[in-house]
Amino acid sequence: MPKLIFSTNASVNLAKSLARSKKFRLAKAEVTRFADQEIAIALKERVKGREAYVIGATYPPGDNLLELLILIHTLKVNGAKKVNVIIPYFGYAKADRVHPAGTTFSSKLIVQTIEAAGATKVIVVDMHGHRVPKLFKIKYQGISAVPLLIKELEKTKIKNFTIAATDKGSIKRAEKYASALGIKKIVKVSKSRPGRDRAIVTDVSGEVKNMNVILADDMVQSGGTLCKTAAALKALGARGIYCAVTHILPTGPAFEILQKDKNITKVIFINTMPHPYKKLPPKFKQLKTEKLLLKDME
After folding, report:
1. Which pTM does this prediction carry?
2. Distance, CA of 293 to CA of 119 (rounded, Å)
3. CB 135 within 8 A of CB 152
4. Strands 187-195 and 198-205: what pairing?
5. Which of 87, 91, 219, 277 gives 247 a disulfide partner, CB atoms 3.0 to 4.6 angstroms apart?
6. What residues does the Ribose-phosphate pyrophosphokinase N-terminal domain cover (predicted)?
7. d(Cα 218, Cα 79) in Å, to the nearest integer?
């Protein structure tokens, strides 16, 4: 019997795609607003004693997160035996510790709130903060988009290429690409961060002259840092710049900035969140999260 899957407004298309498989059935629920814009949820299915799945990305604005929490809780208080939560993009993962002193630890608050709402298990695609999964007391499953991105890169048949880590945090990710694609040594890009969401390329370690470069990263917020990295590589003689990323935030200027940047040849990403275009420009290639979820969910 197909499992019930409920969706917030942020992930309706993903829920519909999953429901086309034999594994899930799109459950009926209304996620609307009262006159004062408070979130109202009404289940149109009996869930008492049943296992339910909920899908909802938690990118800004905050209503996306709040819808997810209220939907989880609504299922729980109406008697669902299990509430499995699929979060294609987990927002607030950047703040995964108190550092420096006086700053927020938002990810811990979000984890505790999801648990308090009634989640039984959480499934996340490429969590940005590597410390966050350890904060969960309930069952956690992380799903990696790297194999799907690697498969697409293989189909692209880029010649004479190398892999570059966009910063220290993406080195392990870049090494996975390099191992799968037969590259012995990755290029490492070093950056300084003079302010929030600002970065300056300070060094590039490795050979890129006359080579195509694949930039491996998990998340793009504004696109500015990726463009600065591409410019630095081009200045060192790189040819094509290909970006392989999981998440691109639709609420900022990332898509527009990447589209306009003349140094970047191609951007391959996953549909963990909606994009702002009616028709995606040729520069972008979107891969389906559904393939990952249907294949890898335990």
Report:
1. 0.94
2. 18
3. no
4. antiparallel
5. 219
6. 5-118
7. 36
Tell me the C-alpha to C-alpha distance, in Å, between residue 278 and each of 225, 248, 275, 281: 26, 16, 8, 9
Q: What is the CATH number of domain 146-287?
A: 3.40.50.2020
How far is 10 from 89, CA to CA, in rounded Å?
A: 10
* CATH code of the domain made up of 3-143: 3.40.50.2020
- At 156 the three-state DSSP class reads helix
Q: Taking a C-beta distance cutoff of 8 angstroms, is the pair 241, 231 a contact?
A: no
Reading the chain (298 residues) residue by residue, the pLDDT tens digits are 889 999 999 999 999 999 998 899 999 999 999 999 999 999 999 999 999 999 999 999 899 999 999 999 999 999 999 999 999 999 999 888 998 899 999 999 999 999 999 999 999 999 998 999 999 999 999 999 999 999 999 998 899 999 999 988 889 999 999 999 999 999 999 877 766 666 777 789 999 999 999 999 999 988 988 999 999 999 999 999 999 999 999 988 999 999 999 999 999 999 999 999 999 999 999 999 998 898 877 6
Domain chopping of the chain, boundaries: 3-143, 146-287
φ, ψ of residue 178 in degrees (nearest 5): -60, -45
